[in-house]
Hints:
five-stranded mixed β-sheet; elongated
Amino acid sequence: MRKFFVFIILSSILGISASPASASHPQTVTVRLLSADLAELSSFQVPTANAISGVSIATGDLGTDGIDEIIVGNGLGNEPRVHAYRTDGSEIGSFLAYDASMGVGVHVAVCDLDGDNVNEIITVPDRGGSPHVRVFNNFGALIDPGFFAYDSTLTTGVNLACGDLNADGSDELVTLPSAGAGSHVRIWNRRDGTMKLSREFFVFNGDDLRGLVGTIHDEHLRVSAQLGSDHTTFTYKLSTDVSLVSTISSTTDADTHTGMFSNGERTYITTTNGQMIDVDTFITSSVVAPFGAITACALMGSTATIVIADARPIAGGFVEEKSILIDLSEQRLYAYKNGLLDNSFLVSTARSPWKTPIGNHTVLAKVPLVHYAGGTGADAYDLGWIPYNLRFYPHIYIHYAPWHNNFGHVMSHGCVNVNLENIKWIYDWAEENISVDVQE
Length: 440
């Protein structure tokens, strides 16, 4: 029986369906297959409920035919579902890595932890979730109850790297804290069916919270800071002790890294301004993506050597503890914490002749209930008492709008309309006096 058929049967048994997308404003994330010289060979679309969250991607053979599949982890604002695709974009199957209501993204990695020539799928929640690592077999069945790579209260996210560091035929898993946490690298081995900590070290000093991205290349671990325009790559040999082999430094105009990968010959950093940077030569290639950010991995068993997907923009906004940005041109709200993106979703602002006030504001009040009524004659309206209201301008609110599902398009008389799930999140998350910046 072919692995594809088994995967689909497993998904059916588990009662798993495809990721939801907004019926009124469907969104997709693009996955592209590139040749060695970065020419686009093909592409396909991944349906998603929140496109700006992007996806996490990894590649690996989920069977024994020597052909890699593309593994995709849903991003922020979607259920934590993992998909397996063929290189032609057809979906093999999918499974939930965590509870469907988790709401944060999921990072994925694919490697052979057991040394049995069959790959496992590894997951960990992205920013906003705890560092709970889970291991699934090649059919998406959970084979490890999971473990916390760091303290369970850490919610800044974890990046993953996977590969053989000591030439023993089994791959190691490397966990790397994302931006907002320290540079604490941990290496894990799977022995006797259990993930065990092998060794750990810090790349930078303890108060450096830029986070890390990394990859395993030629039995060496290569890492770089996630935030900042300093593109120093540290290469470590970890077969016995932790040994720093080399550092290579450069500065470019990319100030945030989404990941690092190797295609067997070269190692690249991907960025939130659509760049792939060769860490040895610093030759930079640019890729157009809807929100600028890209992530990538490599296919080893295909003529396409690099896979690129839309990623999540990580940094931006005011460098304050919390701030909100509303972009009228995108009809989208961005929520930042300490300059890092916590959430983003589609909204509906004012339609002509009404206006949503442009400029720098603050959350003036959190109001549990507001009675929305007004106008005269043909323009009169009474929408009743509406919960979850953030007032940021006299008589102008970010609020729940149960009367439509057309988010992503102008609809309001000046307020910022939000669906139920997202307004609950932003109402709980927001605090009085935080910045609300409305821009065209």
